[in-house]
Amino acid sequence: MRNVRIGILLALLLGLFSACDDGKQTFDENITVNPVEIIGTVGGVIFDASTDAPLAGVEVTVISGGNVFTVTTDETGIYSIADVPATGNIVVLYDAENYYSARQVVSFSESESDTPYASPTATVPPTWLVNSTGVLRLRVIDDDGRPVEGIPVQVNADPVFVTIDQWGNFYGQGQTTDSQNTNTLGIVQFDELPATNQIYSDNAVTVNISEYDSDGDGYPDFNGTTVSYNLRTNSETIKVIKLSRVYSGSLSISDSTMPYFTGSTIFPGTYGPGDTVYINFSREVSEDTIEVELMEKTQGGASWLIEPTVQGSLIYFDLPEDIEFNEKYYLRVYATTPDSMYFVERSVAVFTPVDGDLSVSLVEENSIDPASPIIVTFNHHIGNGIPGLNTYTGSDGIVYFDVDLDTSGQTGDSSNENDYYNSTVVLETQEDYPFWLPGYYPAASTNFSTTFKFSVPGTITINPGVTVWFRFDITSSANYKVRTPDGYTVLAISAIMP
Q: Which residues contact 126 (CB under 8 A, 6 or more apart)?
């Protein structure tokens, strides 16, 4: 029946109007030829691709020779437009509420000879418009089932209309594209897709998700994917798309509020009881294998096991409330990737805030040796912060004696005397290296210590009771400037020779 109906409609549309004369012709010496524009008729029929019923009220626009004509289909889905210039190709546009717009290009018919028909026709193949009320719901999650927020999702759906060829075969044409970002639940919904009950199509929808940089560091955090659905059978439920994370190389610490974890500064700062520490890894870490431990600086001393909060590649935790000021602790962190293929273990020094003014005391390393080195103990951790650079000497010497060493009658006019510009007395940092800690940073000492040592040169005599000055304020080299872990400059201070 369909072929009979379509044949009858086409026969009606293909009726030609011919012009003729009485066969008599007269000739004159003067002939005037006026150009005649060939005018034709354009027509066709529109159906609903879901119901196969004629579609009334479709706005049809015909563009030909710079002229625009508009008409609507009747209750049988038929349209016809007369007086259309029959020059070149004709563009036919369809527009109807809740249907995709369609566009076709046709040509007027030609006679079998070189003379065109006086009233040619352009018959547009029957067209089925696709309803645009289809819906597709997607939920995008990561490897662990957590929603991926804000990721762009693109859908390509086809067809937007269906036509029939000269052999009676139906084929879809056109495609619609839409792109939206997932919400906080990882959900995205596309509302204007081809309807699910089309007669002549499988309603193919392709979902494209490109590689996604979720943290904005210039490197993708999720691999992209392409998934195809048939809306006819996959429109009622939320479809889940799982994205795999991009794992590039071994696990490492990429950022932290404790600079020693990334080795980015010589001044690590100080951290008090209850302070929150953040550590960000290069990849997602496993919550099941994470270990955080704070330890006293003496091997075998007290320690605190800390339970961190794990959020993907980020962990954070609070330092214990019972740690003391003016101290150094060690913090160890161990983490693995969820697949346990990679791990990182790092230990760093943690300095607590200063409490009270800086003070210093001196004691002989060996009380029975007159030439014994002098142990210098400060109540705060101080140093230059440069790992391994733990000796102050030469023009950057720090230790001066408040005594007239050259017997000139005044102090400050000879090397090693207080107020002189340099001293030959060597001051050495006495900082134990925690060899027992795994993955300790830095590889050398931090050069922040409470304990130092110096020896009196053998050419001079310094008696007990002499004031010893530590002139941190006159060192000339920036590398030898003595500071606190927070980076504050330490001023001159004195003590009494034992």
A: 6, 9, 44, 45, 46, 47, 163, 164
